[in-house]
Design a protein that fits this description.
The protein is an alpha+beta fold. Helix content is 63%, strand content 19%. The chain is built from two helices and four strands, in the order αββββα. Strands 1-2-3-4 form a four-stranded antiparallel β-sheet. A hairpin with a 2-residue loop joins strand 2 and strand 3 (80-87). The longest helix has 45 residues, at 6-50.
């Protein structure tokens, strides 16, 4: 039966352990890179697309790994908690439908205010037209 020298076997085990430590280290680094990429993408999205020209305070709180290799990112935008997902394969960030529904209700409220303004303006013009008609009728007699 062949016998293996003990010393080379120990060296191989040590070398294998060293390679496994290095691979764990680099895997951790790539995970941190993806996490930072997810946070940066979320911040860019919330500043540029969610509130164009309106967001003043965007804070990305955390990014954690979710199902399917995506990252779930949580942040606070102008005092409101927001959640979205980042896909590192396509490098895209998407936010849930509830936030878009909130944006829709906000836009509806803005439009209601605009309608109120234009109704008041139209009523004012109607009154002015009525006054001019009365004035015109008085001059015609």
């Amino acid at each position: 039966m062949p016998t293996f020298p003990v010393r080379p076997l120990r060296q191989w085990v040590a070398l294998l352990a060293l390679f496994s430590l290095i691979s764990v280290f680099f895997a951790g680094c790539s995970s941190d890179k993806a996490k930072n990429q997810a946070k940066e993408s979320a911040a860019r999205f919330w500043q540029d697309k969610a509130y164009p020209g309106k967001s003043f305070d965007v804070q990305v709180i955390e990014a954690e790994k979710a199902d399917g290799g995506t990252w779930r990112v949580r942040g606070i935008v102008d005092g409101e908690t927001r959640v979205g997902t980042f896909n590192p394969e396509t490098e895209t960030f998407a936010e849930g439908y509830y936030s878009l529904a909130h944006e829709r209700s906000k836009r509806i409220a803005e439009l209601e205010q605009e309608v109120k303004y234009w109704k008041e303006k139209a009523e004012g013009l109607d009154k002015e037209v009525f006054k001019l008609k009365v004035e015109l009728q008085g001059k015609g007699k």
